[in-house]
């Protein structure tokens, strides 16, 4: 469930992570009945573009979350987040304008499959709080294991910013 996209600048790592999130978001929304006509039109256009490329929406739905690791590092350094778990809670609460509790997120993780894109590890230099970020990500593996969650994680980095930190053996 852990994949790392390693590539040079401008090779599409972040774009691919965003695209994966869009695929899963469209897959979720396409099955919904109560979305606006505008949203329905956007999804249809997206699906049409996929078909032109001989692609289709994922059949297995996942709730997508993209975490810019540089923003997460800043949140940790300013204490506006204490963990990746709380950072995701804060982001969802902010985006939906509804409070999400830790227990609600645990239930959500346990009851639904997720895609988490951790974007830009190389943008968190060792001279900053990179160790704190990596420790928080490691703690998140424990959080999702405790929830018995089905979480697919895709991380992106440049080669010079990666030292096998996301290896399953670590």
Summarize the structure.
This protein is of the alpha/beta class and 170 residues long. It contains 6 helices and 4 strands.
Give me the side-by-side strand order of the main sheet.
1-4-3-2
> How much is the radius of gyration in Å?
17 Å
Helix content: 40-55%
Beta-strand content bin: 5-15%
Class computed from helices, strands and strand pairing: alpha/beta
Annotation field: number of helices = 6
Distance between the termini: 14 Å
Largest sheet: 4 strands, parallel
Give the tally of β-strands. 4
Low-confidence stretches: none
Tell the overall outline. globular
Mean pLDDT: 91
Order of helices and strands: EHHEHHHEHE
Give a structural overview:
Helices cover 49% and strands 14% of the residues. It is built from six helices and four strands; from the N terminus they run E-H-H-E-H-H-H-E-H-E. It has helices at residues 13-30, 37-52, 69-77, 84-96, 102-111, 130-146, and strands at 2-6, 63-68, 114-119, 151-157. The mean pLDDT is 91. It is an alpha/beta fold and 170 residues long. The protein is globular, with a radius of gyration of 17 Å.
